[in-house]
Amino acid sequence: MDLNVYLSGEIHTDWRQQLKAGCEAHNLPIVFTSAVTNHEASDSAGDVLGKENDNFWRDHKSAKVNAIRTKTLIENCDVAVVRFGNQYKQWNAAFDAGYCAAMGTPYITLHDEDIVHPLKEVDAAAMAWATTPEQVIEILKYVLSNA
Fold first, then answer.
1. Helix, coil or strand: residue 92
2. CB of 7 closer than 8 Å to CB of 19
């Protein structure tokens, strides 16, 4: 069975690469998808619809264009991994987790212990909470195992 895994959240560390490399090292049949992780490309996604002088409308257009990708990829994934970093608030990741929960799509949260409290509702709906990419890899190995 091939698994389609959507990666959501924090874009300032290499957690996505760690997950991919670890799964490749174990020859796991996984297809990874993700939101656009280039901050400027994401912020300017709506610019194709015309220049905006007001940042609210630029962000509004870009959010909608980005949502086409995000919504499609989440709806087609088997499981999502939602990463919350400590440095920035990932409101989009919380939204993705909520969307997964509403759709019944299983998701794993990935974050440090010091932000457990603000993420208690997000974690409560998750199938697992991991603190390292290695833990996520072990979960994915188990899901794909014949045990």
1. helix
2. yes
Q: Name which CATH class applies to 3-38+74-144.
A: alpha beta
Burial 55-80 (b: 16+ CB within 10 A, else e): eeebeebbeebbbeebeebbeebebb
Number of Cβ within a 10 Å radius of residue 146: 4
List the 128-130 sheet strands across, edge first. 30-34, 3-9, 79-83, 107-110, 128-130
- Structural domain boundaries in the chain: 3-38+74-144
pLDDT tens column, 23-79: 999 999 999 999 999 999 999 999 999 999 999 999 999 999 999 999 999 999 999
